[in-house]
Design goal:
By secondary structure, the chain is of the alpha/beta class. The chain is about 25% helix and about 25% strand.
Length: about 300
């Protein structure tokens, strides 16, 4: 257990590492300066901060680069995700004149995309990519691109040139992965061997611990010198960002919902575990990392 104290106006903010279900989280409480028990322990908090969700940081408490938030329900998770994504988009545009965001697939982020479609943002300054894609055409029901277009991209005036889909119309997935890597390199102006920094990468996690299309014990996990690789899901090809590319991002946001994710989360958050069995463990970005969980996943 670690604790962090700061005294301001005779109040003490005390953050204690505690265990909530599988996940180590921080409970943040405020005490009066005189409320110490025997041994200097704090007692009788005036109030707890952040009721309804808990916040955790890996590493030192005052390092805000890696955080876990457990939200009461999926609606709260979507709202918190919206707040973070919009904030990151606005910050990137303010600092660099544009925002490059990579989207996740699956059912969890769809309500987020629907909420983003209701926002007023400078669409001409936002560029959209996909962190992974099933090898199907955009009009296929399983297409991540198709889902994002229906929920968000086709609902707002995005310039066509600002949407950068995976070329799944090619006969060879390896050629498609190479072309997508070239497109990313061209956009960012980076040479082979260099890794660009996306402003935001959205990720989910499966109940097997995979993220993007980085599946357990597959070859894509070993790729260290490419931006994009061919993933494999039960013999079906996927196109996926590699772990080194994801780890170069300024902001990585995991969105995880459902009680079926608890066992995988326990392994992902464990101090020691096999990264190849739980690929989400490979995501250790140089920028900020958020794990946003609903109560069912995090309790």
């Amino acid at each position: 257990m670690k604790n962090y104290r700061g005294v301001e106006n005779k109040l003490v903010r005390c953050a204690l590492w505690v265990s909530v279900g599988m996940v180590q989280v921080v409970k943040l409480s405020v005490f009066s300066e005189g409320n110490r028990g025997k041994g200097g322990c704090w007692k009788n908090p005036l109030y707890d901060v952040g009721e309804g969700f808990v916040l955790a940081n890996y590493g030192e408490f005052n390092s805000m680069s890696k955080q876990v938030e457990v939200l009461p329900d999926k609606a709260s998770l979507i709202q918190r995700s919206l707040e973070l994504v919009v904030s990151c988009i606005k910050a990137a545009i303010a600092e660099r004149g544009q925002c490059a965001i990579a989207l996740a697939g699956g059912s969890t982020p769809k309500p987020l995309y629907e909420q983003l479609a209701l926002q007023v943002l400078p669409w001409e300054q936002i560029h959209v990519f996909w962190g992974d894609e099933r090898y199907v055409l955009p009009d296929h029901p399983d297409s991540n691109e198709g889902m994002a277009r229906r929920a968000w991209l086709d609902q707002v005036p995005f310039p066509v040139a600002n949407i950068h889909p995976v070329p799944t119309d090619l006969p060879d997935p390896k050629v498609a992965a190479d072309q997508y890597e070239k497109a990313i390199r061209l956009f960012f102006g980076v040479n082979p061997g260099e890794f660009p920094s996306f402003d935001v990468i959205l990720l989910g996690m499966g109940d097997d611990g995979h993220t993007a299309s980085l599946f357990p014990k597959t070859a894509a996990l070993q790729v260290q010198d490419q931006l994009v690789a061919v993933g494999n899901k039960d013999g079906q090809p996927r196109i996926t960002f590699t772990a080194p590319l994801i780890n170069q991002a300024r902001h990585v946001i995991f969105m995880v919902a459902g009680a079926n994710k608890r066992p995988a989360l326990a392994a992902v958050f464990a101090p020691i575990e096999d990264d190849s069995l739980y690929p989400a463990r490979l995501i250790r970005p140089t920028g900020q990392l958020w794990w946003l969980l609903d109560q069912a996943a995090g309790e």
